[in-house]
Design a protein that fits this description.
Layout lengths: L5 H10 L3 H14 L4 H13 L3 H14 L4 H13 L3 H14 L4 H13 L3 H14 L4 H14 L4 H11 L4 H13 L3 H14 L4 H13 L3 H14 L4 H13 L3 H14 L4 H13 L3 H13 L4 H17 L3 H17 L5 H14 L3 H4 L16 E5 L5 H9 L4 E3 L5 H9 L15 H18 L8 E5 L7 H7 L4 E6 L2 H10 L14 H18 L6 E6 H6 L1 H11 L11 H6 L27 H4 L3 H10 L5
Helix pairs in contact: 1-2, 2-3, 3-4, 4-5, 5-6, 6-7, 7-8, 7-9, 8-9, 9-10, 10-11, 11-12, 11-13, 12-13, 13-14, 13-15, 14-15, 15-16, 15-17, 16-17, 17-18, 17-19, 18-19, 19-20, 21-28, 24-25, 27-28, 28-33
Length: about 625
């Protein structure tokens, strides 16, 4: 019997599991016949097993040339190119594979994720939708579409991730990703459950501990975040991303030196780490080294970091340029950042939630607005919160810190307490008239109880008997509903020059949500101000609740007089400690964009800032004129 050919011998050794011999024989087969696709495949797989991706790509490329209609070989070639760092060639190869096999699921998924990394989220979604159609029970396909859906704000993203976890309950990464998604959607308890499941499967998975740190940050608990980051670093001490995130948490704890040390460690381990470089620049600007911060940010942006870091870096650069007097450059950077946010912001009904809710309030009959609920004293619980509301960036965080300094109050730092109650009534968030229809005494009692349970779970200080200050700017819209819950509550409405308020809202980076999506252009920001403050203009003569207006500029001009006025309104005596609100703020966790400003003495620098941007704001100023006059500002 004749000896087997080198190719047959190589295949036999491969099937027997003898890779080393198979590789040797495959090289002989290729030497004898360069287009022996099976031998070329063996060589490619062996090289890939040693992570020699360039060699693997070379072998798979020759195999693909020899057998151009084989989608598995085409996929292997493209995947080797991807892992060799040749992204552009890999995308071309994946597309070539789809051209011969449009239903090849692994190619659809991998190409989709590569395109997602380059910002082509819409094309990614098309590919993944097709993959799910072909393989609806494949957990990796569901996981991939869920991850991309998060970027696009798709309503089915979390459903896909839940499916992935059900289809592959032992896949720790699926639980990790679901937890990430739930935490970003405010479902903090469910997110924690997902992280616990991931850790049960892989206890040393550092990424889970890091995600728990980020969840703690979302819960306004940077001290807990630091603990989680330290646990992650115990498993992965050189992880620059986690070190950078720990620096961010330490900064929020006002531990500037420790924050700088954590970021410096991150940059030692990975000098190119974008998150560490961003936080380094933020710390420099906070410490007054504005020019150095600007230079670091310009260098960072030149490296084309990922979309999230780019957005934050552009926003931070805008603030640095504003401080340095380059107002045109600053406005351009804020605009670039907002355009990037808008490109992947939730669309459809998400963008209509705020306008629809405001429209529902405008549609209420006058007798429902004019304090109709206020006389119903039987609704009082005896522990009504104080509500601090107003257009965002009008000074609500400042007044919250002033009140917190008094000592008799516990403050919420924008915890979504009223939103929690509304979600209890309408879990989908689709009912624009939620809470405005018939509600009986028992209903209101249950809703009040839900409010206080949520408040007490978030704010341990309430257990000491302090009065609650519920500071949430957007609750201005919800005053008629709040009046039904707490008929005798008092409300502080913060006002600021409409031009400064709109400019400041446009200049900030907010995590996208159905409200802040309306700050991504100056036109939309002004339109939101109009619709929101039109409500207050209609209510201010006969508000749904006992309310007082406080102007930001009055606090700057005569602090004692303005603060004494609203403290008297709240029924408490003057306390000199309110003058030290900056000291109080430095002991507290503040997660709003006003974090740095409220830890310092009040400055006139933010008053009239809009004049530096008058040319950019000119098309929109006429729409704000009536509010300028209404609230007593100079034209």
């Amino acid at each position: 019997m004749a000896d087997p050919s080198p190719l047959d011998a190589a295949l036999s050794a491969w099937r027997a599991g003898d890779r080393q011999r198979a590789e040797t024989l495959a090289k002989r087969a290729v030497a004898a016949r360069p287009d022996a696709a099976e031998a070329l495949q063996i060589l490619g797989v062996c090289a890939a097993g040693r992570s020699e991706w360039k060699k693997a790509a070379n072998w798979f490329g020759q195999a693909a040339a020899a057998r151009p209609k084989d989608p598995q070989i085409g996929y292997n070639f493209a995947e080797a190119l991807r892992k060799a760092g040749e992204a552009d060639r890999a995308i071309v190869a994946f597309r070539a594979t789809l051209a011969i096999a449009p239903d090849h699921v692994p190619t659809l998924v991998t190409l989709a994720m590569m395109l997602s990394d380059t910002g082509r989220a819409v094309e990614t979604a098309t590919l993944l939708d097709h993959a799910v159609f072909l393989a609806p029970q494949d957990p990796k396909v569901r996981l991939a579409r869920g991850e991309n859906g998060l970027l696009l704000g798709r309503d089915d993203a979390i459903a896909d991730l839940r499916s992935a976890c059900m289809l592959a309950p032992d896949l720790a990464y699926a639980h990790l990703t679901l937890g990430h998604a739930l935490s970003r959607h405010g479902a903090y308890d469910e997110a924690e459950e997902s992280f616990v499941k991931a850790l049960a499967l892989e206890p040393d998975l550092a990424a889970v501990h890091s995600e728990r740190g980020m969840l703690a940050m979302l819960r306004n608990d940077p001290a807990a975040a630091v603990t989680h980051y330290e646990t992650a670093l115990a498993s992965s001490p050189d992880d620059a991303e986690t070190l950078a995130l720990m620096g961010q948490a330490l900064r929020d704890l006002h531990r500037s030196e420790d924050a700088e040390h954590a970021v410096a460690r991150a940059l030692v381990h990975d000098p190119r780490n974008a998150m560490a470089r961003l936080i380094e620049a933020q710390l420099l600007r906070a410490n007054g080294a504005t020019e150095a911060a600007r230079d670091r940010l310009v260098e960072l942006l030149a490296t084309e970091p990922d979309r999230h870091v780019t957005i934050e870096a552009l926003t931070e650069l805008g603030h640095a340029l504003d401080r340095l007097g380059d107002y045109r450059g600053a406005f351009a950077r804020f605009t670039e950042a907002n355009i990037l946010v808008a490109q992947n912001a939730p669309a459809g009904k998400e963008t209509q939630r705020l306008p629809s809710r405001i429209a529902a309030m405008h549609a209420l009959p006058r007798n429902r607005l004019a304090g109709a609920a206020k006389p119903q004293k039987q609704g009082s619980t005896g522990r009504e919160p104080v509500f601090v509301v107003g257009f965002p960036r009008s000074g609500t965080t400042l007044i919250e810190q002033i009140i917190a300094s008094h000592g008799d109050f516990a403050t919420s730092d924008e915890a979504p307490l009223i939103d929690h109650v509304l979600r209890a009534l309408d879990p989908t968030g689709d009912d624009t008239a939620c809470g405005l229809g018939p509600l009986g005494d028992n209903d209101l009692t249950e809703l009040r109880a839900a409010y206080w349970r949520e408040a007490e779970s978030r704010l341990p200080g309430l257990t000491t008997g302090k009065r609650l200050v519920d500071k949430q700017p957007w609750n201005l819209i919800e005053l008629p509903f709040i009046a039904r819950l707490f008929p005798t509550a008092r409300v502080i409405v913060m006002l600021r020059d409409p031009r400064d308020a709109c400019l400041s809202a446009f200049m900030q980076y907010f995590t996208p949500n159905p409200a802040t999506l309306h700050f991504l252009s100056m036109e939309d920001t002004v339109a939101t101000y109009e619709s929101m403050m039109d409500l207050w203009a209609a209510w201010r003569d006969r508000p749904p609740l006992d309310a007082i207006e406080v102007r930001y500029e009055d606090l700057v001009g005569d602090f004692d007089a303005a603060a004494g006025r609203f403290l008297g309104f709240l029924g408490v005596a003057w306390n000199d400690s309110v003058r030290d609100f900056g000291k109080t703020a430095r002991t507290r966790v503040i997660r709003t964009p006003s974090r740095d400003a409220v830890t310092n003495a009040i400055s006139r620098g933010a008053i009239g800032r809009w004049r530096n941007y008058e040319a950019e704001m000119a098309p929109h100023l006429p729409r704000l004129d009536r509010f300028v006059r209404l609230f007593g500002y100079d034209a």
